[in-house]
Design a protein that fits this description.
The chain has about 230 residues and is α/β, with parallel strands linked by helices. The protein is about 30% helix and about 25% strand. It is built from eight helices and eleven strands. Strands 1, 2, 3, 4, 5, 6, 7, 10 and 11 form a nine-stranded mixed β-sheet that branches. It has a two-stranded antiparallel sheet with strand order 8-9. The chain is elongated. The termini are far apart.
């Protein structure tokens, strides 16, 4: 457990070209390309339809009902970063809203992922500032207790280190370790190319039973067709 009250100013972010490459792919593709790893729990949802993001993580450890460290984190944000916030214990209070979004956007942030609540959803939609949260909740927070910034955090069961790549869309949120970003982007590209070939075969009417050579294994297990 990392001590509270720590802000790491120096973060080794994933390679920018690798981040750009990963931004071309959806969460499901990235998750599969990485060996089916890195997904956050599915209760983390976009707060408005069409929200999506890809960027490098500035991590935040929050205390329940207290958003002070989000303001501290804003100073550490660089162009293309995503603020990724976990909490020391479960909390669905509205840690984040339009004012903080305005502040983060001015710093170049690509969005927010938070294992907590968010509010001002209509304003966020108008701004097109992507937020993925565990709840939408108008309940406000205080600024009274220290957390930390740019330490490893667990967010919705996923470990996030500062500088990791975070990809989020309508299917969920996936975290790619910074050191694997280029490798995973290449694997995702290969996967998409292979899927396009399968997609065309499905369009042509071929069945998954034949495309994936399923008939033999099904017969071996005793699948029987009756007329």
């Amino acid at each position: 457990m990392h001590p509270l009250g720590i802000v790491h100013r120096t973060v080794e972010r994933a390679d920018r070209a690798a981040v750009e490459a990963l931004s071309a792919f959806g969460v499901a593709t990235v998750h599969e390309a990485m060996g089916r790893l890195g997904l956050m729990r599915p209760y983390i949802r976009p707060v408005y339809e069409g929200a999506r993001l890809c960027g490098t993580a500035v991590t935040v450890l929050l205390q329940p009902g207290d958003n002070w460290m989000l303001h501290v984190a804003a100073e550490q944000v660089r162009e293309g970063d995503v603020v990724v916030a976990g909490c020391t214990t479960e909390s669905e209070d509205g840690f984040f809203g339009e004012l903080l979004a305005t502040s983060l956007r001015a710093r170049g942030a690509a969005g927010l992922v938070i294992d907590g609540g968010c509010r001002d959803v209509d304003d966020l939609r108008r701004m097109d500032f992507p937020v993925f949260s565990r709840a939408v909740n108008a309940k406000g927070t205080v600024k009274a207790t220290l957390g930390s910034v740019n330490v490893p955090v667990v967010v919705a069961n996923a470990l996030v280190n500062p500088g990791d790549v975070v990809v989020a869309d309508a299917d969920g949120v996936v975290v790619v370790p910074a050191a694997r970003a280029a490798e995973v982007a290449e694997a995702a590209a290969r996967r998409e190319a292979a899927e396009e070939g399968k997609r065309q075969r499905f369009r042509d009417g071929e069945l998954g039973l034949d495309l994936y050579a399923m008939r033999g294994p099904l017969a071996e297990l005793g699948l029987t067709y009756l007329d």
